[in-house]
Amino acid sequence: MNNLRLLMPETVLATLALVVAFVDLVLPARKSRVLYHLGWLSAAGVLGWVALTMGDSSAHGTGTLWAADPFSQFFKMTTLLTCALCLLLGLDYAELPDSGAGTFSALMLLSTAGLMYLVSATDLLLVFVALELVSISSFILAGFERRNPKSNEGSMKYFLFGAFSSAIMVFGISLYYGATGTTKLAAAGAVPGPMLILALVLILLGFGFKASLAPMHFWVPDAYEGAPTPVTTFLSVAPKLATFAAIARVFGAIFPLQTYDLTLLVSIIAALTMTAGNFTAMFQTDVKRLLAYSSIAQAGYLLIGLAAGSPLGREGVMLYSFVYVAMNVGAFAVVQAVGSAKGSYDLSAFDGLYKRRLGLALALMFCLLSLAGIPPLAGFIGKMVIFSSAVQAGQWWLAVVGVLNSCVSVYYYFAIAHRMFFKEPSDDSAIPVGAYVCGGVAVAVVGVLLFGVHPEPLLAGVRASAKMLP
Amino acid sequence: MIHSVHTNDMRLMGGLSKKMPITFLTMGCAIVAIAGIPFTSGYYSKDMILANIWHSGDKALFWCMLLTALMTAFYMSRLFILTFWGDDRDHEKHHHAHESPFLMTGPLVVLAFLALASGVLLDRNGLVYKLLPKPSISVAATAHGAEAPAEAAKADAHAATAPEAHAPAEAHAEGHGEHAEGHLPHWLHLALPFLVLGSIGLAFFFYRGPDYAAADSMKSSLSALFTVLDRRWYLDDAFDALVRLCDKVAALAFWIDANVVDRVFVDGWGLLTRIVSEISNLLDALVVDRTVDGFGGLSLDLGVGLRGLVKDGQIQEYLMYVAIAFSLAATLILTR
Amino acid sequence: MNMLSLITFAPLVGALIILCIPKEKEKAIQTVAFIFAGISLIASLAMIPGFDKGTHEMQFVERFAWIPSFGVQYFLGVDGLSFPMILLTTFMSVIALIGSLGIEKRVKEYFFWFLVLEVGMLGVFCALDLILFYVFWELTLVPMYFLIGVWGGPKKEFAAIKFFLYTLTGSVFMLLAILALYFAAPTHTFDMLELAKLTGGWDRTFQILVFLGLYFGMAIKVPAFPFHTWLPLAHVEAPTAISVILAAVLLKMGVYGLLRISYTLTPLGFQWFLPALAAIAVINIVYGALCAMAQTDMKKMVAYSSVNHMGYCLLGIAGMTSAGFAGAVFQMITHGIITGALFLLVGVIYDRAHTRDVSAFGGLAVKLPVYAGLMSLTCFASLGLPGLAGFIGEFLCFLGAFQTWKWHAAVAVLGIIATAAFFLRMMQKVFLGKFNEKWAGLEDMTARELVSIVPLAALTVLFGVYPKWPLDLMNKTLEHMLGK
Question: How many domains does the structure of chain C reveal?
Answer without folding.
Answer: 1
